[in-house]
Amino acid sequence: MKRKKAVVLFSGGLDSTTALCWALAEGYDCLAVSFDYGQRHSRENASARAIARRLGVKLYEIKLDFPWFRTSSLVNAGMKLPQVSLSKIGRPGNIPSTYVPGRNLVFAAAGFSLADSAGAQAVVLGPNVVDYSGYPDCRPEFYRALAKAAAYGTRSGADGKKIKLLTPLIKLSKAEIARLGVKLKAPLELTWSCYGGGKKPCGRCDSCKLRAKGFSDAGFADPALAGLEKRAGL
Which of 3.60.40.10, 3.40.50.620, 3.40.50.300, 3.40.930.10 would CATH assign to domain 5-231? Predict the structure, then answer.
């Protein structure tokens, strides 16, 4: 019997790595896709490569050159990255400067394109409850609508073989994602979530704060920080 196949949108961070390991645990043969869209640094892409190698998953690396992405502080190094208190991160209607215009729409379209070409039955993404409170392209209703559109806009859909859009983390907090990642034995020590580059996470950006709180609430140390300390001889 032919094994089912999935395309996983993959950044090398905590969420997408957990989503990738979830798909593998669900019995999917996975193809991963990462994107170079002009980010301030290439650290997350390096993590994506290392994790894909560790898991034995084929990784497609796509380069995008969209000048308008520079309206985001994730891309424009001349803009200051937000550093706000945890209580203000992810408030509904408060779209942060790190929002990249339509990024997940573009990424998901590429994922469906690959799935349609490769005969995959699913596209897997890692948005979650923390993300969709602040980013409009992480909301559950966005993904429900996108799945319907893909059914009309792909050969698979036209042939009656609808490609599923799976968001296994959509209702999970960062702590629950951390616990799931550990349960799935995901290589979390290789992941990178910090918006800044460098040899170690800055600890000040929104992503670092949310990740730190997630692991703290989960009740165990962040494996990525432990790995950095070990490599640095600390």
Answer: 3.40.50.620
Say if residues 170 and 140 touch (Cβ distance below 8 Å). Answer: yes
At residue 188's C-alpha, the angle toward residues 100 and 123, to 5°, is 50
- What gap in Å lies between CA 24 and CA 76, rounded to an integer? 35
35-50 as b/e: b if 16+ CB within 10 A: bebbbbeebbbebbbb
Tokens of 215: 């692991």
Reported pTM: 0.91
d(C-alpha 107, C-alpha 93), whole Å: 23
In the chain, count H helices and then E strands: 9, 5
Beta carbons of 188 and 150 less than 8 angstroms apart: no
- Give the model confidence (pLDDT) of 30-65 as tens digits: 999 999 999 988 999 999 999 999 999 999 999 999
Q: How far apart are CA 164 and CA 225, in angstroms?
A: 35
Q: Quick one: DSSP state of residue 68? A: G
Residue 29 bridge partners (DSSP): 5
Residue 163 in tokens = 């490609």
Of 183, 173, 196, 182, the C-alpha closest to 224 is 182
- Amino acid making up residue 122: A
